[in-house]
Design brief:
The chain is α+β, with helices and mostly antiparallel strands. Helices cover 54% and strands 17% of the residues.
């Protein structure tokens, strides 16, 4: 009895690379046409890429598209179920959802994250859980190369031709599950420990008031503020950094800042809000202001940035002169 051969490790890697390059080309073309509208979307622009990618993978990996995206067609691969049948659109949609959402949203800042910080933490933990699963299962599960999403939905990526000799589809070895569980527990415990140490170590507080103050600035489309310190900084009792990332949606605003960034009224107002509204700002090693103009739709991006790094004392002298 003949059956489809399981796709090789590098075959799937190359197929995925082709798919994302193709999606990147689509994103680049859309960016040329709709750049002003994408810029207005700010952080939410990433959902454009999610929608396009979901449609691409959901339709083409299902029976509608013959189980093949462009990358799989070039590498002569396709997606099937345990009976070697092409999968339904619904199953293909769920399969794409598990892959696409964590990859695109891992760096996404939830709006008002400072007001509800636990939402950002929960989001990151869930997405990391899935991303680690996709990577770990694919690398370690040599028996049938099912990754996290394949195991959940009972799918296989196979060569697009049958072999005359029966090739047994072995189940996932138990050690793969144990390894995944051990890595997840270790990573999350380390992260939990670091967050507690970081919170105890940090002397900067009241950032919510800074957030409320910056929301009043009409020149700013969206922004994020975070305390930044590495594990080594915490253990060595080094001062943390305060990072404020600001997105502007008008080219003239960006050009005004770029022409004389240190004396820009917008930059000074931002720094003044941080210094006046935050508690413990004297314990900060540096205040980083990053001004961004551009867009990110997940599958393509175009950004200009201005980075200003100074100590709290240096910023105070600058805004008071």
């Amino acid at each position: 009895m003949s059956c489809y051969k399981i796709a090789g490790f590098w075959q799937r890697i190359v197929a995925s690379a082709i798919d994302f390059i193709f999606l990147g080309i689509i994103g680049y073309i859309l960016g040329l046409i709709f750049k002003p509208y994408f810029i207005l979307l700010g952080n939410e622009g990433v959902f454009i890429g999610i929608i396009i990618s979901m449609l691409y993978f959901s339709f083409l990996n299902s029976g509608i598209g013959g189980g093949k995206t462009l990358g799989k067609a070039i590498m002569k691969l396709k997606v099937v179920d345990k009976n070697d049948n092409l999968i339904s659109f619904e199953k293909s949609f769920l399969r794409a959802l598990i892959i696409i959402v964590p990859n695109y949203l891992i760096g996404y800042e939830i709006p008002y994250a400072l007001e509800w910080p636990f939402l950002q933490i929960i989001k990151e933990e869930i997405l990391l859980f899935v991303l680690y699963g996709i990577i770990i299962f694919y690398i370690l599960n040599a028996s049938n190369r099912q990754s996290f999403h394949d195991i959940l939905l009972g799918t296989f990526v196979v060569s697009d031709y049958k072999e005359e000799v029966q090739v047994e589809r072995a189940s996932v070895k138990k050690y793969v599950y144990y390894t995944y569980g051990a890595i997840i527990v270790a990573v999350f415990l380390f992260q939990f420990y670091f967050e507690i140490r970081n919170d105890n170590y940090s002397r900067v507080s009241n950032l919510r008031d800074v957030y409320s103050e910056l929301k009043k600035n009409d020149d700013i489309s969206n922004f994020s503020i975070e305390r930044k310190s590495s594990l080594f900084d915490v253990l060595a009792n080094k001062k943390e950094s305060l990072i404020c990332k600001i997105n502007v949606n008008q080219p003239l605003i960006y050009e005004r800042v770029a022409s004389d960034s240190e004396n820009s009224p917008m930059v000074k107002n931002v720094v003044r809000s941080i210094i006046n509204k935050s508690y413990g700002i004297s314990y900060v090693g540096s205040i980083v202001i990053q001004i961004n103009y551009g867009y990110n739709i997940g599958i393509a991006s175009s950004n200009k940035s201005i980075l200003l790094v100074k100590s709290a004392d240096e910023w105070m002298k600058l805004i008071n002169r």
